[in-house]
Amino acid sequence: MLKKLIAIIMSILSIFPFFGNENLIKVKLDPLQVPLEEFSMKNVTLLDSYEQNAFQKEVEYLKSLEPDRLMRGFGDISGRKINAEKYGGWETSAIQGHTLGHYLTAVSQAFASSGDKDLKEITDYMISVLKGCQLQNGYLHAIPEEHFDRIENGNTSGTWVPWYSMHKILAGLIDVYTFTGNKDALKIASKLGDWVYSHTSKWTPEIQKTVLNVEYGGMNDCLYNLYKYTKNENHLSAAHSFDEMTLFEPLYNGEDVLNGKHANTTIPKIVGAINRYTVTGEEYYLQVAANFWEMVVQNHTYITGGNSEWEHFGEPKVLDAERTNCNCETCNTYNMLKLTRELFKATGDKKYGDYYENTFINAILSSQNPETGMTTYFQPMATGFFKVYSSPTDHFWCCTGSGMENFSKLGDSIYFYGADSIFVNRYTSSSVVWEEKGLTITQNADLPNVTFTINGSAEAKQILAEIEKEREIILAAALNENAQSAKPKPENIIAERIVPGRLEKNLKEICLLSQAFVKNPDQTVEAYVQGAKSTVVSFVRLEVGEGIEKQVSDFAAEVAAQSAAFNK
User: Fold this and answer.
1) 328 vs 326: CA distance, rounded Å
2) Which of 165, 235, 398, 469 is the most buried (most CB within 10 A)?
3) Which residues are CB-contacts of 344 (< 8 A; sequence separation ≥ 6)?
4) Coil, strand or helix at 290
5) How far apart are CA 43 and CA 51, in angstroms?
6) Among 79-93, 325-339, 447-461, 524-538, which stretch is predicted with the lowest mean pLDDT?
């Protein structure tokens, strides 16, 4: 009888896995049929004086570095002579090469943000040199190829984290192509992706486990990005090889298994997971990312938005006991914001936007010395400690590299757009050009006051005027309903929550791309068109019966009229 009872209890627990366990977190997902998109940085202009200074300080620093000194190690491996001395710090260690990847990304982003041709000349020059440094088999790095063999054999002697630095290099090459259009950069990246596949395709499950036990950065993430351009199935296969399912599975089930894990080893893996979702549409990986984000934010995050102590996650919700001079590694914050941006694009959930804004202000902007442009490794949370900033040429920490990236893309993730809507993620003085709609929106943020000025074509202005008129009608109706309600809501709730929801619903009903597809009500017209790899060029609206006048008759009145006429 007892065995039978235990079996019944276990059966119940298998149906309700979260029963009685408050530490389990599984987010209810409601992904958008058509994900949001962020505006290109070339279409966003910073107008805030603090952020303008932060960007300018970063550009000055990037221009002060000598590309040849970053490429010297690559020349040594390939046999190409580069007459320059290596930089100090981490650039003379077994992790050398990672800074070059960050640098390529940062300079490319800065070019996209500013249009400064000097920046593009830097990336063009570096790509021309790196092209000559790439070995015939596709290998490109500042450390010997044998370091990767050592990792596969479980021997870390004399090496560090070769796959981690490989991720930075590959990501930098892809970003050069993305932001500057340099085709050679993509060719180099593609050949390097082939080299990666030559390794991953030979991995047994045991070798894969051995490799993934050593920090490998976001190798899955950058390979998925590469696949988006090349459509090479080998690159997709290589990306899958870095998807760490032994980590993903408990996260998918809502288990907080983060205690003791190296934070900046873990977060990029999840960035790769959500990128797999964007490439394949597999919601499993979106669930993994959403659950992980919730765990980190709810259980392991300080009020600034940063996390970790001495680079590691601790026990859930014991942050106060872990306040030291080595909290909140900036790389962690950088990667958490990458993850947050993708979750916001996938779901449109405002909690991601709220976290992004808070963390950007308190943990990213605050990581730079506004006078020198140098950035922090840690941001201490213990009383009495102070920030330590990198030096220009003698450190090159991981956070030096992510710091370069942070401040060369300040226009990123301020504005997003859907089919007919713009989403403002950060209140900061700036402007954005929505080319497809013929609109320019200028934001003047003198917090707590924010104003928006909209300029555009006559057609665009007419559409906006009609939307505003509709909003006013809905607001008036909602306020009237509220006044008659037994439990009236505050007017700000009506204006900020109820009215936008009703307006969005109305617009979806009348806007073609937002309407439900007639053959599949669960799918929008826009999603159907995208699935068919087509574009709506123009359309004509036809309404059944429109233009036909229907005669309305009153039989009784007709009889009365006839009687009156007869009596005359």
Assistant:
1) 7
2) 165
3) 36, 352, 353, 356, 416, 425
4) helix
5) 16
6) 524-538
223 & 308 share domain: no
**Do 275 and 216 belong together in one domain?**
no
Q: Which helix (H) or strand (E) segment is 514 a member of? A: none
Question: In this structure, what are the phi and psi dihedrals at residue 292, rounded to the nearest 5 degrees?
Answer: -60, -50
Helix (H, G, I), strand (E, B) or coil at 442: strand
Backbone angles phi, psi at 432, to 5 degrees: -140, 140
376 forms beta bridges with 389
Lowest mean pLDDT among 123-137, 427-441, 546-560: 546-560
Residue 64 neighbours by CB distance under 10 Å: 10
**Which residues lie across from 434 on neighbouring strands?**
439
- The kind and range of the H/E element at 222 are helix 219-230
Structural domain boundaries, residue 89: 65-242
* Residues 96, 101, 104, 109, CA torsion sign: negative
> Residue 495's CB: how many other CB atoms inside 10 A?
14
Last residue of a domain, one of 242, 262, 290: 242
User: What DSSP character marks residue 512?
Assistant: G
Reported as a single tens digit per residue, the pLDDT across 4-35 is 444 433 343 333 333 335 568 999 999 999 99
Token pair listed for 496: 């900020």
Structural domain contains residue 252: yes
Name the residue with tokens 């993850």: 339
Pairing assessment for the beta strands 415-417 and 520-524 based on DSSP bridges: unpaired
Could you tell me the two tokens for 459? 């057609």
Sequence-distant (≥ 6) Cβ neighbours of residue 498 within 8 angstroms: 478, 489
Nearest to 313 by CA among 221, 247, 390: 247
